[in-house]
């Protein structure tokens, strides 16, 4: 048995999945832990470190540990992060990351942290146990998606693919009637049964990651998902720790909004600009990409759109609708690269945030004072959207047709619903949003989540 460590400070290793939407919240949490004097070793590929290091507010306590991602057949040479590839070949990057196991084991053996936080690396608990290191599976997706799909009660069979009908029914004991994907929505969960790593489906990989951990943690709050977190704890028969959303405060930012963009935003009235971002991985079909841009144009409002070049296109420019740039000149900008999302949301001229409702963007939406329009694409994004639209009633969803197509008219209508001053829907979601923002912004609430999280980690270390 490992000798009990009574030190007041922890040494924590962070091993997130190599996607921006996973690494960034792990680093936000690292900053909060380092702010309280705890030491962090952060496993990260070299390319990702170049992007993340400017978000490291405590370099004296947060050390990046580089991991070399090997090449596997089918993966473009030099790929290190999920943002470099289409979602369809994510499984190849998963297999490449699994081949870093020896690197991670050697590093853990050398640094011997008290605890490792990880998310998708199902193999990490077995490695950590060799050195008496405790493990916490820290999930940066909503509890709703974990509870409805990735639970033992679902009992997805190994000898056949799960059906849409099975996924359309919540698992036994599931505590929500609204957070359920029905019919064609459930099709987005069929990826659970796809081959993921050798001998494992996606479902088996993720549920194993949680089963093998010493504790489960989720980037959420009891105010929003308390009943779902309790359900998860019952399902896995272990503690579920909550970190809160762990978003940087405006005062925490070391960087400022880039001057050309800041100057452009400064040219518009308060709350008048529509900002759109769909995360670092989503790649739309060209026709859908163009349809959405025409929808922004049709609003008549100033807009800033940050999307990846669509499928089959080398650049944003070649994908723009004919005559689009000339028609929106001065009031419409389509970004050619990564943008400072949180800083843009803090700008006073931005009044509406159109996003895919990935969990990070969901929290940034909820904790901002902007109106929210959602265009979800994948399973957990659909559940996040249901949480904001149907349970909290703080957002509007751009409706899709039977082919999952968002028309320019549908997008325009959704934006106008929340942006028009005489809109009853816009007034209702704004008031509900203000109510929830007041609850979640209560002084000391979020710091209390982190303090309790730290105490739980100390208790786990000393158990």
TrEMBL record:
PANTHER family xref list: GLYCOSYLTRANSFERASE, UDP-GLYCOSYLTRANSFERASE 79B7-RELATED
Any one GO MF annotation of this record: UDP-glucosyltransferase activity
Protein name in UniProt: Uncharacterized protein
SUPFAM superfamilies: UDP-Glycosyltransferase/glycogen phosphorylase
Species of origin: Crotalaria pallida
Record key words, sorted: Glycosyltransferase, Transferase
A Pfam family this chain is assigned to: UDPGT
Domain of life of the organism encoding this protein: Eukaryota
Family membership noted in the UniProt record: Belongs to the UDP-glycosyltransferase family.
